[in-house]
Amino acid sequence: MWSAVARAVAINHSWVAANQDLAMALLFGIGYAGIILEESLAFNKSGVGLLMAVSLWIVRSIGAPSTEIAVSELTLASAEVSEIVFFLLGAMTIVEIVDAHQGFKLVTDNITTRKPRTLLWVIGFVTFLISSILDNMTSTIAMVSLLRKLVPPSEYRKLLGAVVVIAANAGGAWTPIGDVTTTMLWIHGQISMLPTMKSLFIPSAVSLAVPLALLSLTSEVNRKGQESPNVLTSEQMAPRGRLVFSVGIGALIFVPVFKALTGLPPFMGMLLGLGVLWILTDVIHYGESERQKLKVPQALSRIDTQGALFLLGILLSVSSLEAAGILRELANYLDAHIPNIDLIASAIGVVSAIIDNVPLVAATMGMYDLTSFPQDSEFWQLVAYCAGTGGSMLVIGSAAGVAFMGMEKVDFFWYLRKVSGFAFAGYAAGIAAYLAVNNLHFSLPTTLAQAPFLSGS
Question: Whole-model pTM?
Answer without folding.
Answer: 0.69
